[in-house]
Hints:
Structural class: mainly beta
Number of domains: 1
Distance between the termini: 35 Å
Largest sheet: 7 strands, antiparallel
Order of helices and strands: HEEEEEEEEE
Shape: elongated
Number of strands: 9
Helix content: under 10%
Amino acid sequence: MGRIIPSLLFVVSLLISKGTMAQVRLGVKAGANASNLHLDAVTFDPLVGYQAGLMADLGLSSHFSIQPSLVINSKGSSTDLDIRDQNGQREDGTRAIFRLIYAEIPVLFLYKGSLGESWRWYGGVGPYVGIGITGKFKTDSDILEDQKIKFVLGKQSNYVGNVYKRMDYGLNAALGWR
């Protein structure tokens, strides 16, 4: 993680300096995503979420561009939980939903092509770094209460009493048409 942020800042600074010579377009970015949580003892189902924010498209050539963005991204998972009493006997079952909201800075490296004169498509990949803003754990059970997700810095476990790592990073992919 210590090398990712300086590397990302270096790439963005190169993009800004290159952007003075290239075609720069600013815009709004919106879309859907699917995300999932992973724990050894629990099976999760992915949740469909949203992504919305602002982006810049820095044209490097007629087919290539770099697209840094600032987006709000909804992530999470759902699972079936057994609610057990003190003796380990099953009392109830419920569907639990973990919804996390992050502010993210993705940087996509895009290839753009065309299908005829009116259809243009694009596809690309790139890194992202995010910071947890808020979140909620919800169930449809009367026994378990809804809880607010807490984000912490450091190396705490991903899930211990609804405490999650504040920093997130990984890879993004995009495919679309205009």
